[in-house]
Structure formats: C-alpha cells, structure tokens
Structure to design on (251 residues):
C-alpha cells in the first residue's frame, strides 16, 4: 500500500486540524495502512497546497469554500463533536486503503 | 491529572443575553476587566466567528467554542457560560445553519502549543450530553467544575 498525502485544515489556529491529524494517525494504524504524509494548513492555504503537491485527499474540519478540485474532500467536524464520527472514520479508512 | 484551569471567577451561570454577539461581549468585558485578554481580543474573536463560526451541533444541548489566536490572550484557561435562554449561533460544520446554543465554552491560551490541550478538555465535556446537562442545570460554580472534571475522566 502506498503512503498517501493528506491535507488537513481548519480555520486558523491549528486546533481542530491537530485533533483531526491525531485521529487519522489512529485510523491508519487500526487499518494497518502506512501513516500518511500530512500537510496541515489553514483553509486559505489549501488551494496553494493542492497546486504544489500530489494530494490524495483533503480533510477540513469545517466547510471548505471556493475550492475546485477532483481530490476527494472528507469533512471531519465529527472529530470535534463526536457526532457521526464512525461514518467519517470509514470514509478516511477507505481513502487510506485505496 | 492535566487539563486547563477552569477559574470559578470566570464561570457565568444563566447569563442573560439577547444574541451571540452580546454573549461574547459580556464575557469579554469581564475578562478585559480582569486583564486576562488584550483589548483587541473581542474584535478579533467576533470577526473570526463571522467567517468561521464555532457552534457545534451535539444533540439536545448545543455548545459554542469561540476562541481567538494566542496573541490576544494573556493567560491559559477555560471560560464557561450557561445562557438563561439559548441564542442562535452558526454551525461550524455548516455556517448557513443557525443552532440554538445554551452553553459557551471559551478557551484562552497565551502559547500556541496549549491550544490542543484546551480542545481535548473541551471535547471530553461536549461529547457527553450528560455532562452538558449537568452544566446547564448547575446553580453553583462548583457544579460546573465538577461536570468538567467528570467529562475529562
């Protein structure tokens, strides 16, 4: 299985995205996938990071506006609220295994 | 046990405010008097809420977790307010949706590395509707502190 590259992003202060990074590491381990390479940034920096990196999927902790891309986007506010977390975990596991 | 300070002098019970802006202003005015935040904290936090709201849809009891960058804070701690009546607060997951929020948990941090600690502690509480119900029902500051400690276990 190849090592994936993931953009994990949040509004500005890197709090919720750090929570998401930790969760994705756990999901990778549970599914015996290699830990992905993380690009952690603000929403406003996603477009730039998409254009300069080969990215497998994007995990924003809130809505990502004005981004046009074919790269899958998996919204992960559930990692903060705990509501609907299993569904998001499933989608991320699927991308890690792809 | 780690975790952030939840100072009793910064717990508000049944805060009576008409809307989310008034809630933030009331809390910030108190923190500014205590010299725990910079004068620009409130402005920065309100602007941030406009672009990236922090209402969390959790179930029967919804919570907002407003915060500003560390540059505007002079200390590291949590501030909790229960609202006498819920106010509308935009949903972090979907900003076009307004949630009825009855508990505000504001985090202050003066160093960026403390932010994650703050959020982890908040998550322990907000992911438990039981702990939230205890906070909403609280009539003393001690009951709020107790609910937070329980959520952390």
């Amino acid at each position: 299985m190849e090592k994936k590259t993931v953009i994990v992003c949040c509004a500005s202060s890197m709090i919720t995205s750090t929570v998401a990074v930790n969760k994705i590491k756990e999901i990778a381990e549970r599914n015996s996938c290699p830990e992905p390479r993380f690009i952690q940034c603000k929403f406003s920096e996603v477009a730039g990071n998409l254009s300069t990196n080969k990215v497998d999927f994007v995990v924003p902790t809130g809505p990502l506006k004005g981004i046009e891309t074919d790269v899958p986007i998996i919204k992960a506010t559930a990692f903060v609220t705990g509501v609907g977390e299993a569904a998001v975990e499933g989608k991320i596991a699927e991308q890690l295994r792809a | 046990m780690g975790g952030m300070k939840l100072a009793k002098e910064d717990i508000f019970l049944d805060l009576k405010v008409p809307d989310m802006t008034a809630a933030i202003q009331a809390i910030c005015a108190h923190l500014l008097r205590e010299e725990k935040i910079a004068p620009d904290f409130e402005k920065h936090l309100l602007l941030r809420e406009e672009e990236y709201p922090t209402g969390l849809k959790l179930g029967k009891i919804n919570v907002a977790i407003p915060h500003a960058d560390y540059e505007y804070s002079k200390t590291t701690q949590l501030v909790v307010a229960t609202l006498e009546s819920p106010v509308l607060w935009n949903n972090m997951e979907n900003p076009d949706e307004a949630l009825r929020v009855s508990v505000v948990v504001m985090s202050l941090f003066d160093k960026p590395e403390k932010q994650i600690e703050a959020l982890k502690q908040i998550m322990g509480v907000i992911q438990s509707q039981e702990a939230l119900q205890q906070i909403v029902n609280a009539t003393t500051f001690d009951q709020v502190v107790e609910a937070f400690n329980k959520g952390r276990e």
Residues 65 and 93 of chain A are 24 Å apart (CA to CA). Chain A touches chain B through 18 residues (CB under 8 Å). Chain A has a mean pLDDT of 94.
